Amino acid sequence: MELMTHRGLFDFESNRETKGAIHEGLWLHEPEVTSEQYERYFLNIITEGERAGIRFTGLTCPGCACEACKQRYTALRSAGRKEPNPAMWRALLNLAKQGKFRSRTVPCFFEASETKFGLHRKAVDGDCAVCDLMPNAMDWFGSWGNTPNRVNPDYYITADGKAGIIVRHVNAGAPYCIWYSHWQGLNPAKGVGWRAFVTVIERIREHLRDRVVWMRPSDITNRYHAAGGWSFLDRLESKGL
Ligand SMILES: [Zn+2]
Questions:
Q1: Residues with CB under 5 A from ligand 1 (ion)
Q2: Helices then strands (H, E): number in the chain?
Q3: If you measure from the C-alpha of residue 181 to the centroid of ligand 1, how many angstroms do you get, rounded to a whole number?
Q4: Domain count, the chain
Q5: Ligand 1 centroid to 34 CA: how many Å?
Q6: Domain residues for 21?
Q7: pLDDT in tens, 72-100
Q8: Does any domain span residue 5?
Q9: How far is the CA of 66 from the centre of ligand 1 (A)?
């Protein structure tokens, strides 16, 4: 469960989305926002989650192609600001140190790529770390539009277990395969991607059982941070996992 949405900033005092507010993903890139402002906003979300019995794991940067976001992203990029505001990493680290997340390391998802992978520690203090952990597979479980033509289990793994992005990553020895999805498409009640998701899990169990270990993203960042790199994967392999 991740913190950010595709909507505008929420006003926690009046308990509603502020009309015309900047979208949350773009706000993570605005250079003037302070670490304290980020921390307060994230804490408001975390507190709401606690009321509902939900502990958050990390943060996803929601993309947005609305006109306002597109224009502002272009302006930021041409001013040389391609990365999110570093104050945001510091705010997340502070919250991790206060035990506000599910674990001491906080996986975040900014860039995604089907060919590159990467885990980058953005803020560190002792056993706490905020990491940008790049997803290396996309959403073919209906996406945010809950769209049937965005559903394709074969994208992940085909019925014969011979093709698909998960198979490619496993065969290439990538340290992980992380895909992301949107609750609109994935939820079992109304999501058009739910059946495909179940199919993908069944195919992984059938064809890749001996070659994968399931982990939460925070398991990956915890172990990576403790080991100082990917060496923890060698130990999993030597145990035959
Ligand atoms: Zn937008």
A1: 23, 64, 66, 69
A2: 10, 6
A3: 19
A4: 2
A5: 21
A6: 10-102
A7: 999 999 999 989 999 999 999 999 999 99
A8: no
A9: 4
The CA 145 to ligand 1 mean position distance, Å, reads 15
d(CA 25, ligand 1 centre) in Å: 8
Residue matched to tokens 């996406």: 143
pLDDT tens per residue, range 112-139: 899 988 999 999 999 999 999 999 999 9
* Tokens 């709401």 sit on residue: 48
Q: Determine the distance separating the centroid of ligand 1 and the alpha carbon of 138, expressed in angstroms.
A: 20
Q: What is the CA radius of gyration of the chain?
A: 19
Domain assignment present for 70 = yes
Tell me whether residue 46 is in a domain: yes
- Of 41, 67, 102, the position where a domain reaches its end is 102
pLDDT digits (tens, 9 = 90+) for 21-44: 999 999 999 999 999 999 999 999
Spatial separation of the C-alpha atoms in residues 7 and 21, rounded to whole Å: 9
Closest CA to 85 of 29, 123, 124: 29
Q: 17 C-alpha vs ligand 1 centroid, how far in Å?
A: 14
